[in-house]
Fold these 3 entries.
Entry 1:
Amino acid sequence: MAIQNVTESYVLAQTAGDTYNGDSRDQTYSISPFLTGAGETITIVDQGGNNAIELPAGLTITSSLVVSDQAILTLSNGAVIDIRGANTFTYKVGQNVLVGDTTGADLNYADFAQDVLGVTLDGGNLVEGGQVTVDDTGGGGLPVLPTVSLAPTNGQTTEGDNGNTVVTFTATLSSASDDLVAVDYATASSTAQSDVDFLAASGSLVFSPGTTQRTFDVEIVGDTEYEPDEIFRVELSNPQGAVLDQSGTVIKGFEALHTILDDDQPSTPSDDHSNNRNSTATALTFGDVTTGEIERNGDEDVFRIELEAGRQYTVELNNMNDLGITDETVRMAFYDQNNRIFDSIIASAGENTGFTFEADGTGTFFYEVSNLSSGGPDGNTYAVQIDELSGSDDHSNNRNSTATALTFGDVTTGEIERNGDEDVFRIELEAGRQYTVELNNMNDLGITDETVRMAFYDQNNRIFDSIIASAGENTGFTFEADGTGTFFYEVSNLSSGGPDGNTYAVQIDVFI
């Protein structure tokens, strides 16, 4: 490069990496690849005065980057000229004062960008220009290249359930060219995956002289998977005979973001048993084992069965724990005919548990199995079984009129036919009177740890006292009735793990 002081006429040779800071005097900077080192960067900074940039005829600028106040020019030898304060310079196009060539034109920065570099300033946005050669008349760069843009820049396409949907993109030249123009295109993944959500596409578009538009297609792959909307990119690159459209901020004119709109619905997990306490609930059959699975947290499997009032039944719940989670617990809740829970059992991981009960009415009863470990994984399995007890029951287990009536002074015997059996008795008592009760654990099975309990219920159906008879023991106590009416006494086996069939005897008398 040479710097010519228009008043003192001196020339400075450029050395690598120099920065030229002008002063308040008028200065002209003559740009020539013969005076600049190949591949070096030279910076010119305007500091005042009426300054100019001189561009001789025949100078080839292979590329340019311009903004409102800066121009970066790359010359044919690879040297880079960085002009700071570019909007304050006059551009002497086609002139070379050092050799006496003063023909050409003086252009301001905007006209220099338009007429020589072939680009339009876009405020603070960076605009890229292609290769130009300065002519010897000062008329501008040869040639002024058209810009190439892509559309649609921000389109949308519904995915579809099957097959492929074609999206057409259009590349457009800002003006027709007298020469062939070419540009490459290619797709790229963003949130959408190439060859999964769309088919990768790439190639070259060639514009014949006089034409301004070429198209290419990208295929969207349809599926039935519920997923978010996804985006892929399309970009133009490597223009020949044109420059890329640099307009735009988030999306430049030479690129596109395309959204694939998902049109699928979220799938509903399968459910092996209904969660409704109505006719859709799975029917149980006496003696059959029915399996189920807690498919997800919050799943409730409901079963139904027809029961007969006064009959006794056993229910078993087996928590298979096939997931191997030690704290995975399953609960079965039992609903009466008023749709209220009257009892429940809980099976820990790997546990098989159950109980015996007597139906309090005739009709449809419901049983609901759910997972108590709400934070645990889905997929825990279980098994349920209900059986009707075939053996007879000597005394009702209901605290109502079906209970066996006791007579003062009489000994009444009973048998715990099975684990969970409860024998209930009733008697009419008078408030303020005292009574004695005896309980004899006959221990006819000869089991030394077989114990029997008698619980005493007040008129509010609450236990107010109880006595326990160990194996072979005869025990009792005296009490005063706190009201007049029917009182209930319930005998059960405390040794729930022992055998069935233990017998006992009860007696009540008025205390004189």
Entry 2:
Amino acid sequence: MLDAFDAWHALILLLALVPAAVALVSILRTRPASGTETVLWILIVLVAPLLGALLWFAIGRRSARARGAERGSPSD
């Protein structure tokens, strides 16, 4: 049975991994300018899950959408 200390660790781990998983799915669904950009974002999210996910949603997804609008096609 999990004691309180282990339950808190599990909750913290879950709170870090869920945004990272959502960010990875979003990265893979977005049309990148290049394959290198996709690999770079994936590595950022894998190395620093919470920070990488926050950066993707704050910077990466917005710039990918702007590039898609310039091309005349939606990125999502």
Entry 3:
Amino acid sequence: MEQHETVRHAIIALLEKNELTAREISEQTGIGEKDIYDHLEHIQLHSRIFIWP
């Protein structure tokens, strides 16, 4: 669980600086694009961040 939170914090930090696609986030984090979508879904459900489809 803690590792997922760290990954999600990294994704949030990237999104706070730039508008990025899932592919761009994947390239910058080294995490698979499918996994990025899973993290983005969780981030949107549990935070005040709105993610555009």
